């Protein structure tokens, strides 16, 4: 990943409950940290009990932990603050069907807002175009409230959709299948970067 020019490593952690698939936990982040010292560890929790993962991930070297508002519910604000008290950044995420209005009271405590542009839990899906309206809404709210959170999109990002996401206002793009396709990471990242030339 370093050789491809990527600066962040996005780690999707799934528990088989919040989403149907089961991936990995903090132990994998801990194993990757010594050989990925230059990369920013962006940990995305697709789990039912995100609070249980915070301290193990902080110990493993996570620099940003993002959890779903659908999972944390009324504990979301407290959880954002709890993560930030650990000395790292905190993010909040929404599934495609969850409106941005569910996040309005949380935005001032978030370092990043992750808009899922596919239903979480499965790679290789196509971006749902309507989800980019959430990005536009979050840009408006950020300006209106003079906040500084980053806006991240995850799902179906490739050279065709990356420009659409950035044009909508996304700051951080998560790409999985399109990066690792055909085991040509460097070439695939280069294609993504090329698709974004001249947009910002």
Describe the secondary structure blueprint for this structure:
Layout: E1 8-14, H1 26-32, E2 40-46, H2 51-60, E3 64-68, H3 69-72, H4 76-85, E4 89-94, E5 112-116, H5 132-145, E6 150-154, H6 162-168, E7 172-174, H7 177-180, H8 185-195
Parallel strand pairs: 1-2, 2-3, 3-4, 4-5, 5-6, 6-7
Helix pairs in contact: 1-2
- DSSP strand count: 7
- Could you spell the SSE succession in H and E letters? EHEHEHHEEHEHEHH
How far is the N terminus from the C terminus?
23 Å
Provide the CATH superfamily.
Aldolase class I
Shape: globular
The class by helix and strand makeup works out as: alpha/beta
- In the CATH hierarchy, the third-tier topology is known as TIM Barrel
Order of adjacent strands in the largest pleated sheet:
1-2-3-4-5-6-7
CATH class: Alpha Beta
Structure annotation, total helices? 8
Mean pLDDT: 91
The CATH architecture classification is Alpha-Beta Barrel
Strand content: 15-25%
Number of domains: 1
Helical amount among residues, as a percent range?
Answer: 25-40%
Spans of at least 5 consecutive residues whose pLDDT stays below 50 are: none
Radius of gyration: 16 Å
Main pleated sheet: 7 strands, parallel
């Amino acid at each position: 990943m370093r050789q491809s020019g990527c600066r962040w490593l996005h780690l999707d952690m799934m528990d088989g409950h919040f989403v149907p698939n089961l991936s990995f936990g903090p132990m994998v982040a801990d194993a990757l940290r010594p050989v990925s010292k230059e990369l920013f560890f962006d940990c995305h929790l697709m789990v039912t009990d995100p609070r249980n993962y915070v301290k193990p991930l902080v110990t493993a070297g996570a620099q940003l932990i993002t959890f779903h508002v659908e999972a944390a519910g009324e504990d979301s604000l407290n959880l954002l603050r709890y993560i930030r008290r650990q000395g790292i950044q905190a993010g909040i995420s929404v599934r495609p069907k969850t409106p941005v209005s569910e996040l309005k009271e949380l935005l001032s405590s978030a370092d990043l807002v992750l808009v899922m542009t596919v239903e979480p839990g499965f790679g290789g899906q196509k971006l749902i175009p309507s989800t980019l309206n959430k990005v536009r809404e979050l840009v408006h709210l950020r300006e209106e409230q003079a906040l500084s959170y980053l806006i991240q999109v995850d799902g179906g990002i490739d050279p065709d959709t990356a420009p659409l996401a950035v044009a909508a206002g996304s700051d951080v793009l998560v790409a999985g299948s399109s990066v690792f396709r055909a085991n040509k990471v460097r070439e695939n990242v280069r294609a993504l970067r090329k698709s974004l030339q001249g947009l910002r």
